[in-house]
Amino acid sequence: MAFSSSLPCEMNGHPMRSATARPPTLPLLSGQYPVEAAGVAVLQTSPYLSSVRPGTDPLLVYLSDTAGPGAPTGGPPPDGTAFGIVGLDRTIVWQDDPEILQLLRYAAGAPRPTGALAARFGALRVATVVGRGWLQDPAELCREYRLVSGEVEVTAHCNWGCLSCPVATDPKPRRTMPMPLFKEIIGKLAAAGVAYVTFQFFNEPTLDRYFSERLEVLAGHGMPLALYSNASALTAAKIADLKRTGVLKHLIVNIPSVNEAEFAELTGSRSYRHCLGNTEKALEAGLPVQVVVNGVGERLERNLAGVERHFTRLGAEVYPSLTCDRAGELGGEYAQGIRVEGRLSGCGWPVQHINVSVAGDLFLCCNDYYQREVFGHIGDGTIDELMSAERAVVLRRKVFGVDDAPDDFLCRRCHNQQSDFPGRDFRPIATFG
C-alpha cells in the first residue's frame, strides 16, 4: 500500500536558493578550480549529499499528500557510470570515476586537510568537487537550503480532537494571525520564490475569520494554497471564494472513516455530516479534492477501503496517511517509541519548508507541536537572511549530524530520522556510506 505523509511535504522542481551560491555542475577534472581556490585549510563533505548506484533503487523518496511520492531525477546513467550523487536539487549527477566517491566518503565524517586530500586523491579531483559544492568549508555546512513551501499557522485552533493528534489531549489557546503580519509573511515568501503555502499546523484553517481575506492576499501574489482541512466549516461561501480567487492547489480533507460512530470516536467530533457533505459540495464545485485517511494497522486498511468506495466515484483522490506519534507526543495505538542515538542523519523539513507560527516565529518543522525549536521571527529580515542566519544553520547542523544534538532534541524521537524510514529524502554519505 502506497502511503502519503500526514502533513504537507511536497517537493517540486523549484530552484535551490542558498546564502552561498555554488558554481554550475562542472565536467569531471575540469581544471577550472585550483585547490587553493578553496581558501580553507580543511574541507568536509556536504551532509546533504546521498550516493546512489546505477541500476539500483536510490532509496530516496519524496513523500507528498498533494502529488504522490517522487524520486530523484537525472535520467539513465551513461555507460561506464560508477555511481551518482544526489544533492538538494534532487537531481542525480552520474560519475564515472569511483575515486570521487572515495574522496567524498573519506571527508564525510570529519574535516580533512585540503593538502592531504589533494595528495591522496589528486588536486584536480579535489578542485572539481569543491567547485560543485560537494566539499565545503566546515563552517559553511548546512548553510544552504531549498525552500518549496511555507507552512503558515493562520489560526491556533481546531474544532476536532483527533486521537492521531496532540490537540486531543493538550489543545492550545485560540489565537488568530493578524492580517498585517500575514501580508508580510506572504510577501516575503513570494519574493523568495516559494512554490506554495499551507494554512495548517494542528488547526482548522476554515475557522479563521480572515479566511476569505487571506485568499485575496494569496491571489494578489499569485501564491497557490494547499488547503488542509476537516471541511466541517467549509461553507458554500468559502468554496465559492476558493473557486473565484483561483489560488487552490489542492483541498486535502481528513476523513478517517465513513462510519459515523467510528468517525466520532477518531475525531472527537459530531461533525460527520458537515464534513462529508461539505467535501461532496467542494467536489461538485469542481475543486481539486484529495481525501486522506489517518490511522494505523488493520483499522486503517478497513477504513481506507470504505472511504475509497464513497469518494472515488465522486471524483476525489483517496490516500492513506502515514500517521506518526509526532515525535513522541502521542500514545496508545499511535505510539512509535522511537529513540535515535548518536549523530542524526538528516531530514528534508528544515531545508525544504519554512514553518511560521501564528505569532510570526519561525520554528523547526511540522512535528514541533510546542514550537520549541524557534530560530527567528518573520520581521527579523528577508527569507534568505532568516534561513541562512546562524540560529537556523545551528539547528540544521544538528538535524544532519554535523554537530551532536542534545539528548532531548525533538528529532531523536522522530520517525524521519530512522534509517529504515521508507520516505527518506536524504541518506548522508557520513551515516549511510
From TrEMBL:
GO molecular function ontology, one term from the record: metal ion binding
Domain 4Fe4S-binding SPASM, residue spans: 347-415
Stored CDD domains: Radical_SAM, SPASM
A Pfam family reported for this protein in Swiss-Prot or TrEMBL: Radical_SAM
Superkingdom of the source species: Bacteria
Keyword Flavoprotein (UniProt): no
Domain named Radical SAM core: residues: 152-297
Keyword Hydrolase: no
Region of interest: Disordered: 1-23
Keywords tagged on the record: Iron, Iron-sulfur, Metal-binding, S-adenosyl-L-methionine
Family matches, as PANTHER family: PQQA PEPTIDE CYCLASE, RADICAL SAM DOMAIN PROTEIN
UniProt protein name: Radical SAM/SPASM domain-containing protein
Species this chain originates from: Streptomyces sp. R33
Upper lineage: Bacteria, Bacillati, Actinomycetota, Actinomycetes, Kitasatosporales
